[in-house]
Amino acid sequence: MPPALISPSENDYILRGVDSNIRADGRGRLDYRQIILETGLITQASGSARCRLGEGTDVLVGIKIELGAVELDGADEDVAAIKAKRGRVVCNVECSPIASQQFAGRGADDFNNELTQMLDRVLNGPQGGLNLEKLCIIPGQQCWIVYIDAIVLDYAGNILDTIFMTTRAALYNTKVPKTIIQDRGDGEIEFEISDDEEEWERIEGWDKVPVAITLNKIGSRHIVDATPLEELTTEAKLLVTVNKDGKVCGLQKSGGGSIEPSLLNDMVQTGRSLGQSLIQSLDEMLRREENDINLKRARKERIEKLGFFAAI
Amino acid sequence: MTFQFLSPKPHSYTDKVDADGDIDMLLKTERENFETKVVTPGELVTHATQYMGGHGTYTNETNERLSSVAGVVDRVNKLISIRPLHTRYTGEIGDLVIGRITEVSQRRWKVDINSRQDAVLLLSAINLPGGVQRRKTEADELQMRKFFSEGDLLVAEVQGTFQDGSFSLHTRILKYGKLRNGSFVIVPPALVQRCKTHFHTLPCGVNLTLGLNGYIWVSKHTTQTVEEFAIYSNENEEIDQENREAIARVCNSISALSRHFMCINDKTIVLAYEASLNFPVKDLLKLDVMVIITNEVNEKMTSLKAGMRR
Question: Which of A261, B34, B57, B85 is 20 to 30 A from B176 in CA distance terms?
Answer without folding.
Answer: B85
